């Protein structure tokens, strides 16, 4: 790509989440949150898929890497300087709810926590890096989970109101771009992450999940309205996990199945956030799955009045599906299900790599909603090796990102209004799904390992200079 495709002022940067890289879990008055009780390794995946998790830690049996992360809490100046060296225009980060309200239900916030993020935002401002802040990124305070049952409980709307208003009031002069709930549509697949509860049983999962989602829809809409009141000119987006759904073949039954799966996964939450109403297909889906949503008077009006300004989304993979499938046909590693796509290769963790799918995603989203879009997560988790000369030759990551950025450019030429791109895990961090350090995404290598060893030393990978060139050229130099 040699001609300029991306608009002037395009927001290039990187993305992180507090629970995966911040550390300092017992510093600065912070309370425990969901991520603190999730063990590292294969045990985490089992918990995500199970029911009845008790949210207790067993330090004799498991390790808990999220406690330490990569210690951004104490090393933020060093890391932000590296982001600035790459030329970041924007840095996507989240705020740890339990750092601001340790239990989640207090009436007054923790000043130490607020002051920490003041320092982070001031450091970003020193380098003219715009913060893009996710308010809730898989970090429900543990007390709200144990005492109230997570987002199944309507009371969390009130607690989130207080939390969001506190952030908007404190940082009104420092943060313009906000996201409400991370990957909100993933909640029906993994309610533990987004909704802060483990389903009572597989049979009740959908009822519990959609009730929790309704509470988040109301909370998000209220937050959008409050942000616009407190911070004139602020931009508040939703955040989806997006995966185009391909039919396995041209069998009309499979095509219809893929269409329904795409509507449910990709557009249900988007319709509520952007159009301000439940989608047209919701009534039939709820009826056929025996889902009954408890709503209060005024909820639907609140949702209608609190629509978002833009859509942000994560894109890692597409999904191929068919109506009837055997266990042997299932895609290995794709967290969102489906069958193996014979035309795609996969990452070290089995995630199918589909750059064209990103162009498809951008066109599908823009075609449906006609609002600005931002890709806020996209990256390759891989095993990185330090060579004898100390370098890290991650050409595979450069290849992955290059092809995805090229397809973004094609989508812009298609007419999509794309305003930013933040590569996921711009610095190595703890994997959300597996709790591993070894699943590395960053342009910056962090000397920390699954067995807990490591110095936390930061080291630039080959992709560091490559991404710096991409940003300097506004996406025209990708080779």
TrEMBL record:
Molecular functions per Gene Ontology: beta-glucosidase activity
A matching Pfam family: Glyco_hydro_1
An example Gene Ontology biological process: carbohydrate catabolic process
GO cellular component: cytosol
Matches recorded under InterPro entries: GH, GH_1_N_CS, Glyco_hydro_1
SUPFAM superfamilies: (Trans)glycosidases (SSF51445)
PROSITE patterns given in the database record: GLYCOSYL_HYDROL_F1_2 (PS00653)
Keywords: Glycosidase, Hydrolase
Family affiliation: Belongs to the glycosyl hydrolase 1 family.
Protein name, entry field: 6-phospho-beta-glucosidase
């Amino acid at each position: 790509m040699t001609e300029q495709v991306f608009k002037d002022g395009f927001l290039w940067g990187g993305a992180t989440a507090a629970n995966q890289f911040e550390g300092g879990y017992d510093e600065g008055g912070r309370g425990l949150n969901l991520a603190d009780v999730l063990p590292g390794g294969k045990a985490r995946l089992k918990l995500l898929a199970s029911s009845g998790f008790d949210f207790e830690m067993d330090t004799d049996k498991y390790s808990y890497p999220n406690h330490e992360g990569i210690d951004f809490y104490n090393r933020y100046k060093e890391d932000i300087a590296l982001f600035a060296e790459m030329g970041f225009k924007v840095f996507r980060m989240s705020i740890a709810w339990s750092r601001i309200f340790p239990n989640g239900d207090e009436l007054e916030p923790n000043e130490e926590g607020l002051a920490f993020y003041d320092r982070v935002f001031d450091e970003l401002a020193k380098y003219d890096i715009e913060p893009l802040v996710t308010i809730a990124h898989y970090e429900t305070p543990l007390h709200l989970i144990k005492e109230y049952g997570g987002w199944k409980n309507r009371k969390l709307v009130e607690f989130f109101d207080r939390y969001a208003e506190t952030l908007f009031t404190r940082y009104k002069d420092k943060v313009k771009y906000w996201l409400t709930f991370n990957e909100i549509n993933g909640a029906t697949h993994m309610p533990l992450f987004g909704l802060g509860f483990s389903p009572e049983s597989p049979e009740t999962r959908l009822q519990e999940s959609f009730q929790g989602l309704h509470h988040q829809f109301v909370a998000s809409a209220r937050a959008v309205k409050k942000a616009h009141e407190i911070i004139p000119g602020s931009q508040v987006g939703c955040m989806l996990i997006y995966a185009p759904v391909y039919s396995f073949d041209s069998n009309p039954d499979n095509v219809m199945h893929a269409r329904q799966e795409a509507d449910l996964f990709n557009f249900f939450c988007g319709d509520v956030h952007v159009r301000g109403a439940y989608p047209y297909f919701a009534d039939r889906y709820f009826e056929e799955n025996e889902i009954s949503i408890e709503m209060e008077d005024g909820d639907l009006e609140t949702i209608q009045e609190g629509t978002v300004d833009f859509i942000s989304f994560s894109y890692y993979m597409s999904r191929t599906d068919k109506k009837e499938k055997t266990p042997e046909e299932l895609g290995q590693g794709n967290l969102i299900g489906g069958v193996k796509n014979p035309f795609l290769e996969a990452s070290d963790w089995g995630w199918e790599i589909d750059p064209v799918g990103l162009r498809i995603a951008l066109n599908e989203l823009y075609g449906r909603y006609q609002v600005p879009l931002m890709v806020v997560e996209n990256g390759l988790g891989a095993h990185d090796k330090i060579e004898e000369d100390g370098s890290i030759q991650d050409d595979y990551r450069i290849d992955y990102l290059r092809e995805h950025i090229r397809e973004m450019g094609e989508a812009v030429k298609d007419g999509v209004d794309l305003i930013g791109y933040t590569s996921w895990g711009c610095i190595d961090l703890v994997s959300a799904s597996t709790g591993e350090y070894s699943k590395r995404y960053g342009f910056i290598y962090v000397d920390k390992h699954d067995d807990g060893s490591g110095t936390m030393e930061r080291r630039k990978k080959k992709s560091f200079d490559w991404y710096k060139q991409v940003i300097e050229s506004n996406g025209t130099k990708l080779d």
